Amino acid sequence: MRVLALADDLSGANEVAAVLAALPQHTDGDPVRPAPSVSTTVRVSPRPAASDDAAVTVVNTDNRRGTPSQAAGRLRAVLAADPTGPGRTLFLKFDSLLRGHIGAQLQAVPGAAPVLFCPAVPELGRTVRDGVLHVDGTPLAETGLWAAERQAPARTVAAQLAPAPTRLLDLGTIRGAGLAKALARAAADGAVAVCDAESAGDLERIAAAGLAQGFVLAGAAGLAAALGRQLGPRESGPLESLGPHEPPQPCRADVLIVLGTASAAARRQAEQLAAAGVPVRRLRPEQIHGFALEHRGTVAVTVDAAVDPTISDALTAALTALVERHHADRHLVLSGGETAQAVLAALDVTELVPLLQAHPGAVVSVAADGRLVTTRPGSYGAPDSLLRILTAMHFLQDTTRKVPS
User: Fold this and answer.
1) What separation, in Å, do the N-terminal and C-terminal C-alpha atoms of the chain show?
2) Averaged pLDDT for residues 102-114
3) Burial of 177 (0-12, 13-18, 19+ CB in 10 A)
């Protein structure tokens, strides 16, 4: 079965590609480059491809920005230009912290298809109970995770999806014998089925029941991974087995790391990078424009400022211009979906082929010219995240492709 996934930002697009394709995770000491188990393409922009017969196609709709009506219109346009058709499953990937115009886009799904929504990612501590999204046990509305947004999150998932009509399926329903009937009632009412989930097993049940009843599945990487497992076993094999979808060979180059977020997690990661000997340029917002970055070597750039949503667009533009001036054909690490989208658009990178995960959420891909591009959401990862990303990228450059005899 083939999958078309639509994601509302680029880091989310690569993240969902990784879990749908069961992308291998880099581990130290493996002398053989791991191979994607199925052919996978990520389109950096929603422009339709001339032809695309990949098993997993992910399109970045870039719908996190703009207005709700613009987001709904873009989603409808992508589906009209690239319909799912028989034998092709549609998945809608959204932020696990519920950022973006989710309700408007769910309402834009063709009326014949009911929608099931669940943002839970249990392995990241993101669970849903009684219709409330919790992060490490704390309701989302009581965390500071929306500090970079222009407003606070709603207290419930249903309220965040407004004006889309919703029906809650609580944990008792998810784990009980009445799940199929509850989904059927939601579909009959024209409501989005909002599902509780606290474990991978809950997500497995949700995905299986939704597929069986023809629902469009929508949510975060946890539900995408459950969908991938429902689509059947993925046998590993050498890259050559992918035929025309064989990824380009990564070229050898230094790495430019761009942290488009001023989060506390990103600061800790930059500190570990600097401790390992990687130059880290901590720039105040007013310094970025015109800053002369070194043209050689691996280097990182991070914003030295408090989170301020009123200047986020200007920061993204300044960081993008910095990369345009100084990328020098280096490989790229782009933290934050908006930063990644802007930089790759400026460099005219239109498609990526995911190769492996440095860690969950940090996906290393290759562009047509052999440039490696790693993306991840801005707040993701442990303090050693950037070091793990660099290790994985060096591994891809240094490992000679080996095919089992």
Assistant:
1) 29
2) 92
3) exposed
The contacts of residue 363 (CB under 8 Å, 6+ apart) are: 14, 15, 17, 18, 23, 354, 356, 357, 374, 375, 376
pLDDT at residue 346 in the model: 95
**pTM for the whole thing?**
0.87
What tens digit of pLDDT does each residue of 6-63 get? Answer: 999 999 999 999 999 888 888 766 655 656 667 889 999 887 665 567 889 999 999 9
Alpha-carbon distance of 386 to 55, in angstroms, equals 30
Query: Looking at 46-55, 62-71, 256-265, 324-333, which range is the least confident one?
Result: 46-55
**Closest alpha carbon to 71 in 44, 48, 50, 92:** 92
Domain coordinates in residue numbering, the chain: 2-230, 247-398
Nearest to 40 by CA among 224, 206, 222: 224
* Superfamily for the 2-230 domain: Putative sugar-binding, N-terminal domain (3.40.50.10840)
- In CATH terms, 247-398 corresponds, of 3.40.50.300, 3.30.450.40, 2.60.40.1120, 3.40.980.20, to 3.40.980.20
CA–CA distance, 183 with 202 (Å, rounded to integer)? 15
